[in-house]
Amino acid sequence: MEKIAAPRGTADLYPPESGRWQALEARAREIAHRFGYGEIRTPMFESTDLFVRGVGETTDIVEKEMYTFADKGGRSLTLRPEWTAPVVRAVLEHHLLAQGPQRFFYVGPMFRYERPQAGRFRQAHQFGVECFGFAGPEADVEVIALAHDLLASFGLGVRASINSIGDDVCRPRYREALVAHFAPHRDELSLDSQSRLDRNPLRILDSKAPQDRPFVEGAPTMLDVLCEPCAAHFAAVRSLLDAIGIPYDVDTRIVRGLDYYTRTVFEFISTDLGAQATVCAGGRYDGLVAALGGPPTPGVGFALGMERFLMILEKRGEIAVGPRAGIAVVALGDAARARAVPLVAALRRASEGLAITIDYGDAKIASQFKKADRAHARAAIIIGDDEMRDGTLVARDLATRGQETVPALATDALAAQSVLAWYRALRPETEVAA
Ligand code: ATP
Ligand code: MG
Question: How far apart are CA 51 and CA 291, in angstroms?
């Protein structure tokens, strides 16, 4: 029979890789918690209209990347291509803003029909936060600091790149300035940028097409035309970042091609990633809640690409395999196996987080040790004919290869306690490193 493969642009995760994901997710949750952000989970699919209105008709996402389908009831639904619009939808649906400012984080998959390549998938995963209800620069700085602290907690030397894209007052002026700058070169621009020139000229700044680059480089910058309140907001963001020691650069080419994005935009870019260099992107979106039918409410947030983050960590060897941990029970023969089952059960009940594994097959002792070693277990408990006869267990330290005989006490619970006491007394692996 012909085998069926996973869809292009998706990935299966299994150990040890899934362990790295768990470690990253745990760290992200922990840092979000420290900043007072609570988890929000929304459906994997939403009404297509939500994204058309909430992401914007002239964006790449809505123009060409959405997984849109009609369900059997004829509704147009779309797999979530990003999280901000669904979060705003949920916040409005449950009237959460009536209780004042709100802080949320999310972690999970998003779906975009893109050309799969390194760091670019059709099902990708994002961790992100959204902070609602604060118009001042402190909230911008808070979310930038949260992203920074997450990246920095893995030992990465990270700098934020920040910019301001102004507001309803000054951005129209900037649009005009951009059109005046690009229009004389219309024919030299990429086809995408030619259409952006009419529909959304800011997005030309975001272009990855090489032929656009010279014109982008010479383009006027938003910072030159910011209105006074936007300039003051940007200056305050900068001085607060300085005050809490977050390193950043101003990069005037960072934009968000959406009308309800306002003022601060930022990215974290890694030199380790090549073409798909942006690991985290965010900004302020003071117009979005109102655009989705809610009370005018400021918001700011970011989304961090987890695949890209893990790629950086892998390149840097930052999420290395941890120290050896856990106990492999090695039972040799039918009788020993029968004896091992209740002992394993007792160990698992008492183990406080240690992994207790057992091979139920007939493999020889050497091959069971090899497996335990590959699984990175710290210890093995061996039950063979001699141990069955003598009422003992052999406890082996897989890091030092030293072993000793321990009495198998009257009950499994007591035997488990003495095994775990022996295990806890082992010297840390770092001290016994070969
Ligand atoms: P890009 O310019 O790389 O297409 P984007 O502007 O579309 O990114 P955002 O919508 O801002 O990206 O998403 C935030 C983050 O999610 C990105 O910085 C990136 O790390 C990650 N990301 C976006 N699209 C993908 C994808 N197709 N595969 C993997 N990660 C992605
Ligand atoms: Mg994209």
Answer: 11
- 406 near 420, Cβ under 8 Å? no
* Strand ranges in 195-348 using DSSP code E only, listed in sequence order: 248-250, 262-269, 278-284, 299-305, 327-331
Q: What is the CATH number of domain 17-170+226-315?
A: 3.30.930.10
Same topology, domains 17-170+226-315 and 327-433? Answer is no
CATH number of 327-433: 3.40.50.800
Per domain, the residue ranges of the chain are: 17-170+226-315, 327-433
Atom nearest to 302 CA in ligand 1: 14
Instruction: Judge if the beta carbon of residue 171 lies within 6 A of ligand 1.
Output: no
Per-residue confidence band for 257, with pLDDT thresholds at 50, 70 and 90: low
pLDDT at position 316, please? 82
Mean pLDDT confidence for 299-327: 88
Closest ligand to C-alpha of residue 113 is 1
Rounded percentage of the chain residues whose pLDDT exceeds 90: 79
DSSP 8-state secondary structure symbol assigned to residue 224: G
| Cβ of residue 261 lying under 6 Å from some atom of ligand 1 | no
Q: Which ligand is nearest to the CA of 114?
A: 1
Q: What is the mean pLDDT of residues 69-88?
A: 97
The span from the CA of 93 to the CA of 246, in Å, is: 35
Note the ligand closest to the C-alpha atom of 115: 1
Q: Whose CA is nearest to atom 29 of ligand 1?
A: 120
Residue 284: band (very low, low, confident or very high) from pLDDT cuts 50, 70, 90: very high
Worst-scoring range by mean pLDDT, 101-115, 123-137, 290-304, 401-415?
Answer: 401-415
Determine which residue's CA is closest to atom 9 belonging to ligand 1: 281
CA distances from 418 to 20, 377, 413, 415, 423 (A): 32, 18, 9, 5, 9
